[in-house]
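Researcher: For the record, we're logging two predictions in this thread. I'll number them. Prediction 1 follows.
Model: Prediction 1, sequence and structure:
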Amino acid sequence: MRLKTLLLIALAALGLGVAQAQPTQAATGAAYTVSPVIPANQRSAVSSYFDLVVKPGASQPLTVAVTNETAATRHIRLSLTHAYTQANGEIGYKPNGPTDQSAQYRLDQLGTKSQVITLAGHQTKRVSVTLKIPAKGFTGVILGGLYIVDQKETAGASSDGVQFKNRYATLVGVQLQTSTGAMNHVKPNLKLLSVGAGIQNNQPGVLATVQNPMPTYWGKMLYTAKVYKRDSDTVVMKRVASNYTTAPNSHFDFGITQKTGLTPGDYTLDLLVTGPHGRWHWRRNFSILTEQAQKINKQLALKTPFVMPWWGWVLIGLGIVLLIGLLWWLILLLLRRRKKDEDDDENANAPQQ
């Protein structure tokens, strides 16, 4: 898939209005518009986001034109954000998103993180964020965005008498490379960092933390996960998810969830990830401790299924052995008594001398 198409998909996944070259509203009812001012070192012909080839050690301005569409004064916050992978397999750009230690550099580290723009009624301002490109350059791609949000809340829909407030936001994507096609020289890779019990989407389950440690991104991945009882072919949980995308140098929790409470025990995760850019397969043993299951289930108001501890089975086994022994003793006692009764009857019926 071409880089341009991938980035457009990633930006659309944010669920926010992406700023266009021609002024457009950030979202229905928004009071401002945003237009990127494309510089000469734009790598491609696209005009809706920054796709730049930058020089090591250089200063790179990112400029947007912000217009107040109302007569009232407005305060607009502009933040420099980095890309990250969301739990739903889409790329996110909201400020203060999760970071990954594999990143050599992040976009929000290269310039001023945020600033507030004050706009008078119907005023347009050009606002710039200056990036300082590392002197030694960087490998692959740095992906992020300029996240613009109206500081004023507006009334939204209400539910059960509660009035919700909205803040409209716009994203202008930013992709940096030090040479044309630099991203294509980075081989995609995935790692399974950890597996354990947790909560996702208000449901209990198994969370597999998957990392992309490389400065590149790609999509169209299929995740197939099965959770087995340890040393068994019994599948207790499973999930299949398609069209997942991963942001550069990021990680996320792939959740295999259920509606019932977690059961303590020993398990094995089998996770397969396939796509046009590679294939990754892991089998990982893990355990859900009783304390973990009880804590998670209690938080979600679910019952913890009863699991017999090992010593419970030992006691049951001893009880069965004792019961069998008692029954055998009773049988022997009855047999002896019957034989005694038979012997007494024979003696009683024998002729007297």
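Researcher: Logged. Prediction 2.
Model: Prediction 2, sequence and structure:
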Amino acid sequence: MPYYVILSNLTDEGRKTIKEKPGRIMEVNKEIEGMGVKVLSQYALLGPYDFANIVEAPNNETVAKMSVEIGSRGSVQMVTLPAIPVDEFVKKSK
């Protein structure tokens, strides 16, 4: 199954929600998994992005649908990047 890196920034509304209810992050992860996107790992970041997620999904369409659904709430902005494991990249580069 394909992998994706999702870089995200909270909006002002998102920061307010996380401050008041930090566990909301885990609730959203469950919602995402219900959309067919498996969260493999998640990191809070310092720098230009607030979070990085490594996810697995059956295809680009599934990730795009999830991105629209979560993004339409107005609490987060996301950048999604398809990712190829290095060992697969090396095999296909030969």
